[in-house]
Write a sequence for this structure.
């Protein structure tokens, strides 16, 4: 009868990646949030890694898109079809015993955005869908004791958003979500090279440079990097060899924006909890938390210790999965839309 059991799924429905956690199995899927569809017919051609390879290279008869933008659903149909593919891949086609899902959303998501996630998940094959705020899920996945009376702070920086939250006794005391993340980092790099060197590069090339050379601090012995793109003046292909620290200069603006919002949250935090955060430190999660020296940069800018979670990329998905494994314990951290105003009779 094991086949007929419901395989509950914890989902980090991110702007750049989808991670799925199966109850009692751990992370079973890590795929890009990218789909490719045929223009006109709307036929689904590829999802995930296969679709990502087509970004910027697809012929006119294909539309390659990222259906999630800034942490929320930009294309309802494409997101539903992408999720359906991933659900089928990990639990199979099921008419009965469909899985329940816990899906992480930005802490600043609107009611409309929450409802869109619920309907997308259930259209993709989930039997029942709960929502959890991303920083809350990230805290659970990072091993933070969210039920402690002492204050803890989480900064989850993904591709689309930076979510920050102060937690105590299983509740958010103060939280904020800003639409600055890895995608804005890439866009800042594109703008920098266009402005400083007259070179146009693609966002995918900018992401590769960020991963290879990105740092919150200039390095003393930064390696040289090859930047290939199109000359803004002549429009011809061009290749430059530049100091790797130029990526650091390009990222300065979005990083300082995140720090300013973080300071605002700390100013709104009760003094007792601020003392706890100073003792416990700020926990960094999300893919962009891997940026070299980011923990040190935030610590110096705020005066509060900062550390990176053990698995920052998977923290949200792990947290969503742990909630599914202990629904009774974590019931109060979930957002159950059917208990909301729209479902009251």
């Amino acid at each position: 009868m094991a086949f007929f059991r419901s395989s509950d799924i914890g989902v980090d429905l991110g702007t750049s990646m989808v991670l799925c956690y199966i109850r009692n199995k751990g992370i079973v899927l890590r795929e890009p949030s990218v789909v490719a569809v045929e223009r006109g017919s709307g036929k689904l051609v590829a999802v995930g890694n296969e679709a990502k390879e087509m970004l910027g290279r697809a012929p006119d008869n294909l539309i390659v898109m990222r259906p999630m933008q800034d942490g929320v659903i930009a294309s309802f149909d494409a997101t539903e079809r992408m999720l359906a593919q991933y659900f089928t891949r990990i639990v199979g086609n099921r008419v009965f015993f469909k899985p329940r899902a816990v899906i992480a959303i930005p802490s600043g998501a609107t009611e409309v955005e929450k409802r869109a996630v619920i309907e997308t998940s259930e259209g993709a094959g989930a039997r029942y869908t709960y929502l959890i705020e991303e920083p809350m899920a990230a805290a659970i996945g990072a091993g933070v004791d969210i039920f402690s009376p002492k204050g803890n702070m989480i900064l989850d920086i993904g591709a689309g958003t930076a979510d920050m939250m102060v937690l105590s006794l299983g509740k958010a005391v103060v939280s904020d979500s800003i639409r600055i993340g890895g995608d804005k980092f890439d866009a800042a790099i594109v703008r920098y090279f266009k402005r400083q060197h007259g070179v146009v590069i693609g966002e995918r090339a900018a992401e590769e440079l960020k991963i290879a050379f990105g740092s919150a601090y200039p390095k003393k012995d930064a390696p040289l990097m090859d930047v290939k793109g199109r000359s803004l003046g002549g429009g011809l292909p061009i290749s430059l060899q530049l100091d790797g620290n130029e990526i650091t200069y390009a990222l300065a603006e979005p990083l300082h924006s995140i720090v300013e919002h973080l300071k605002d949250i700390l100013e709104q935090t009760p003094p007792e909890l601020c003392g706890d955060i100073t003792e416990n430190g700020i926990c960094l999660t999300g893919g962009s938390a891997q940026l070299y020296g980011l923990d040190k940069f935030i610590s110096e800018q705020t005066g509060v210790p900062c550390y990176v979670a053990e698995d920052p990329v998977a923290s949200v998905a792990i947290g969503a999965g742990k909630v599914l494994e202990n629904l009774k314990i974590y019931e109060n951290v979930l957002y159950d839309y059917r208990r909301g105003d729209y479902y009251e009779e």
The mean pLDDT is 90. The longest strand covers residues 171-178.
